[in-house]
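Write out a record, fold above all:
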Amino acid sequence: MAHSLDQLYETKLQLVAVLAVVGGSACLMFAHWVTTNPSAPAWLGGLPLSEIGSTIFSTGLLAVFFEYVDRKHGDERTDRRIREAVRKEAPAFRDAVLDSFAFNAETLKGIASPDTLDRIATNALGLRLGDEALARDAYADLRDQVIRSPERWRDVDISVSLSPWSGGPARGKGSMFTATVRWEYRVVPGVSTMRFACVSDLGEYRELLRDPTIASSWYFESLGATRAQDRTAFELQQLAINGRERIIRRTERAGAQFYSVGLGKPASAAKEVTVAYTYSVLVQRHGHLLYLDLPRPTKGPHVRLDYTDAGVRYVNVLDYFASPAAARVEHSPTGAKAKTIDVGFDGQIFPRAGVAFVWVLEDELTAKGEPYRSEIK
């Protein structure tokens, strides 16, 4: 079935042909009347009516007719020339488009949907890796962990002070360390409220780890009279945005406590701020482990542990930074009064990365009164 525009074109062409033939015929007849009729005005005889009529008649009868008949073949010739030109210049067009996409991300962003961008990234990664399945899984993990993360932190500075807890036994069951942890980092807030949690249920703890509104969550195993809902187990002491203290709201229930802090501005403000907060948490002394979780994509974290008065002989460091570059780990000099460890990393790390400190206690390295002489390094 012919396209409506083609039908309209044919109708107009036929109408022009009919009008031209009728008009040309009328001019020829009028010219003949002028030349054969003595009563016709003399000035009409000077007009080229015959030539005008012949031209119009010929145009309508011949030119329009040939255009109508030859139009199909003319369109075919035009299409063939276009296809040849496109086929000839296709490599240049392709290279220009790919170069534009490769060197101007905004151009690609403006014409491609998120799904299209995902397919392009997956295919490009598959070509580089030579493994389509690996590229698909790797990009899916990257997308879920980084692209969908509500925030991205940078210049993260964490300081931890480890000291014995005075509210329980000095050693043995129930002995604890008080870890005072201070965080400071820069971020464009993706949430309007920051939340902190301390729970005694492992299932709930794992759910909180995936909650984008939770800035920090801790699992506390209830020992003795201390429970996860007690302030002694966990307490958010201070939180400031750009140096301004924010109001801290606390709620508790059996086996859990939560803190929430409003940031004061809508999350859509898209303005980078400096977030700083301090909390204290009880850590089992004989658990030998303190793990600091980084829940957001993070650039350039630095962690310092001070265990001067903790009765710890040595601390091992395990960093969970998935990167070909190694983290910098610096221990305080042997014999120094202050016992510290600094862990630094300049690169970008994914969410759920972190740093684990594993310690050896002084009173555990004594056998029959003799000090244990080997060290884990």
